[in-house]
């Protein structure tokens, strides 16, 4: 595949990348301590957000795309204007590093998970702390709102998954079953189930209402770093240290397909918007696109010279974006497998990036404290 654009600027690992919903922009986060928003067509650097005084571990866009939220080692959560790049609010209250942040579906609240063992819900407009959710006995590594915004799910080093009432702050259910740290959590599209991935090598599907363990998906022989539901909620995909990507039937718990091809740990997995394909990023420096039905390897995207930390499909499913240890962000044609763009500009590792739903803004978190 021809190299259309090489965007230079990164001087260290790029850990997380994402397309805007309209596919016109890309956001990247790097070890070089910067967060960058790029024009996907021209390759130009659009914005760089600075303000944190510690590494930024997690970033996300507001549903309307006008704001970005970031969580940092400096114990603060920051809300930014995605257009101007200005710092709108600094949310202070955590007494430890903030590992994970997310906006509520209506964009009015922000949730954060921290080393201080707490989950906090904030008013995105005023910056006030609305609720501090206490119950975990160790660091909170992953947080997410339910699709209706009424609940929050959190995964922790304490081996538990907790579901909280976002309004009252009450602990609704503590999901116990994992025997090691919970690395990744997500709600199903209908909000009725939760999926979790753990260091204990298992993937668990839980009933969000009863708190019951519905299915324990066993098959991986290494830690499970990334989990996600398919768009229709009928399947779950997982990526593991054991070099495999697994597709599971969410109802029966059966292993539908084991996607083999990677030669090292799989860090990131995602379904395409239509649910027909899966993309995976690995320590083996490759990005793979798989047929979710047949399990066949459709395309192996080669070009990175370092571990691939983060992968995502564009909203229309026609492109894939990847971020790597080699300090670059690559945009690929999902059909041909050709390298469309190589975005260079970061000078350090970028841990997390995301686009706003309208594609006008990007948020990123980095070691550069911005």
Please tell me about this protein's structure.
With 370 residues, the protein is mainly beta. A hairpin with a 5-residue loop joins strand 31 and strand 32.
The rough form would be described as globular
Radius of gyration: 19 Å
Give a quick account of the main beta sheet: strands, pairing sense, barrel closure: 4 strands, antiparallel
Structural class: mainly beta
List the helices and strands and how they pair.
Blueprint: E1 14-19, E2 25-30, E3 35-39, E4 45-48, E5 56-61, E6 67-72, E7 77-81, E8 87-91, E9 98-103, E10 109-114, E11 119-123, E12 129-133, E13 140-145, E14 151-156, E15 161-165, E16 171-175, E17 182-187, E18 193-198, E19 203-207, E20 213-217, E21 224-229, E22 235-240, E23 245-249, E24 255-259, E25 266-271, E26 277-282, E27 287-291, E28 297-301, E29 308-313, E30 319-324, E31 328-333, E32 339-344, E33 350-355, E34 362-366
Antiparallel strand pairs: 1-2, 2-3, 3-4, 5-6, 6-7, 7-8, 9-10, 10-11, 11-12, 13-14, 14-15, 15-16, 17-18, 18-19, 19-20, 21-22, 22-23, 23-24, 25-26, 26-27, 27-28, 29-30, 30-31, 31-32, 33-34
Question: Notable features of this structure?
Answer:
about 375 residues, mainly beta, 4-stranded antiparallel beta sheet, 34 strands, globular, disordered N terminus
Describe what is shown at a glance.
With 370 residues, the chain is an all-beta fold. The protein contains no helices and 34 strands.
């Amino acid at each position: 595949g021809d190299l259309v654009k090489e965007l230079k600027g990164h001087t260290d690992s790029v850990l997380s990348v994402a397309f805007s919903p309209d596919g016109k922009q890309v956001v990247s986060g790097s070890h070089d301590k910067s967060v960058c928003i790029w024009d996907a067509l021209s390759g130009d650097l659009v914005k760089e957000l600075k303000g944190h005084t510690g590494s930024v571990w997690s970033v996300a866009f507001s549903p309307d795309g006008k704001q970005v939220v970031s969580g940092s080692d400096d114990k603060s959560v920051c809300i930014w204007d995605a257009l101007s790049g200005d710092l709108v609010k600094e949310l202070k209250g955590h007494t430890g590093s903030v590992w994970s942040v997310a906006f509520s579906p209506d964009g009015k609240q922000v949730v954060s998970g921290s080393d201080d063992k707490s989950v906090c819900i904030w008013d995105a407009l005023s910056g006030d702390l609305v609720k501090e959710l206490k119950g975990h006995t160790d660091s909170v590594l992953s947080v997410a709102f339910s699709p209706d915004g009424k609940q929050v799910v959190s995964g922790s080093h304490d081996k538990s998954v907790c579901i909280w009432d976002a309004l009252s702050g009450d602990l609704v259910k503590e999901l116990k079953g994992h025997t090691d740290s919970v690395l990744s959590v997500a709600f199903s599209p209908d909000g009725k189930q939760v999926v979790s991935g753990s260091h204990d090598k298992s993937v668990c599907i839980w009933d969000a209402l009863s708190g019951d363990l519905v299915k324990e998906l066993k098959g991986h022989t290494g830690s499970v770093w990334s989990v996600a539901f398919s768009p229709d909620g009928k399947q779950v995909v997982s990526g593991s240290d054991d070099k495999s990507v697994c597709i599971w039937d969410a109802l029966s718990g059966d292993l539908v397909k084991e996607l083999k091809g990677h030669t090292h740990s799989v860090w990131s997995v995602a379904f395409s918007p239509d649910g027909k394909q899966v993309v995976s990023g690995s320590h083996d420096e490759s990005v793979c696109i798989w047929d979710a039905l047949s399990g066949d390897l459709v395309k192996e995207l080669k070009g990175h010279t370092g571990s691939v930390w983060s992968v995502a499909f564009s909203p229309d499913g026609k492109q894939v974006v990847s971020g790597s240890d080699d300090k670059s962000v690559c945009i690929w044609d999902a059909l041909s497998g050709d390298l469309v763009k190589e975005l260079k500009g970061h000078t350090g590792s970028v841990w997390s990036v995301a686009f706003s739903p309208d594609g006008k803004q990007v948020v990123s978190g980095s070691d550069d404290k911005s």
